[in-house]
């Protein structure tokens, strides 16, 4: 199967969780938003979003075209890709657990985004900076340790002790946890360094994923987009105080 | 199968999306948080959350105990229950579409919640009222019409023209859309009444679901909890101005 990934160019964003799974599995895919030429780029994304004939329209990117299917919502795309890319256990219980963890990652990501956009996505950061300062204080004290502690526990409680979230093998959840840790270190370097000793398994997982041959090759390629100030992980020093 | 639903008592909250599916299908279940007696109530919920032996811990309620499985995340619980309760199409593509819609409902619900809690879940509304006023203005003008317009479109584009979100039969997505419309009419009566003419299919779906025999019986029973000012749908007139 050849896949078409649709996601806004120039930010890693939520599309990156899908990209990492496709890259790790050496899947055949085109990153439509990032490609030049006819039928590619932002226009192609908007074309799908505005297509009034589409029976099952996506609400927003990312979405994946797989044959006749158009699948949206990051966790839903990974639910579909997981078994096809060998990145999730075969059992139904294993897949439900993977999906549960991915949805908790999605909740965490939403809160990370809203730290710099607590009022509206339509406003610039500078226009909601006072509220962002207030929200980020609560986020750093209450939510960051709660979510990181939860995922650290998940790794600790995996009886296989291989260092992965689920069972004995890497899953798309591990790839997403890698991206989460990388993004948090970009956005909140002080807070993350200060709490490093409390999350040894998450940091070890990050390094282990980064060293996987396909992921290492991807990270060194121009396909990997750097974190930046338009994405969901943003570094504003005042929010990391 | 006998199910155990774990969710905070005294608010409908996210647990209600699961409850409606169980009720519509006349499933055998106990609503653990709401029951008196030993092994029930909040203590039972907290017991699971604090169980350090649990290999696959939930991050937060709702979670569902089904035999040996403990499944968390609302959309994930419905992904599991859907086929077992006959509340989702049999095909993989139909299940993915249902899950995609349910995740978009979850995103909408998060934004509805954050309208009254834009800074922190740990603070009272009164301590973040200024920010809530600002966020709610953007929510009402930008997000409410965008999400409602999207779901109205989904109903309009379903080729079966039976008035359901997916195919020719009711699914758990329809039950969740019912709850969404009921909650929004509670929280934002002015805004919702003002926009009623723009969402005829969503309103018709609400009424059709409410009239289903099992749902009507449930809504008339003491098991149905009223919306209130502790839940995710809250009515603050100043946020509906």
Q: Architecture of the largest domain in chain A in CATH? A: Up-down Bundle
Mean pLDDT over the full residue set of chain A: 97
Rg of chain A computed from alpha carbons, rounded to a whole number of angstroms = 18 Å
For the largest interface, the chains and their residue counts are: A-B, 42 and 43 residues
Q: Specify the overall morphology of chain A.
A: globular
| End-to-end Cα distance of chain A | 47 Å
Q: Oligomeric state of the chains?
A: homodimer
CATH topology (fold) name of the largest domain in chain A: Glutathione S-transferase Yfyf (Class Pi), Chain A, domain 2
Secondary-structure element series of chain A: EHEHEEHHHHHHH
Structural class of chain A: alpha+beta
Regions of chain A with pLDDT < 50 over 5+ consecutive residues? Answer: none
Strand order of the largest sheet of chain A: 2-1-3-4
Count of folded domains of chain A: 2
Characterize the structure shown.
2 copies of one chain form a homodimer. Chain A has helices at 15-24, 41-49, 74-85, 92-116, 129-157, 172-187, 189-194, 200-210, 213-219, and strands spanning 2-6, 28-31, 63-66, 69-72. With 241 residues, chain A is α+β, with helices and mostly antiparallel strands. The first copy, chain A, folds into 2 domains: 2-85, Glutaredoxin; 92-212, Glutathione S-transferase Yfyf (Class Pi), Chain A, domain 2, CATH 1.20.1050.10. Chain A has a 4-stranded mixed sheet, covered by helices on one side. In chain A, β1, α1 (15-24) and β2 form a beta-alpha-beta unit. Chain A is globular. The first copy, chain A, starts with a strand and ends in a 22-residue tail after the last helix. The relative contact order of chain A is 0.14. The mean pLDDT of chain A is 97. Chains A and B meet through β4, α3, α4 and α5 of A and β4, α3, α4 and α5 of B.
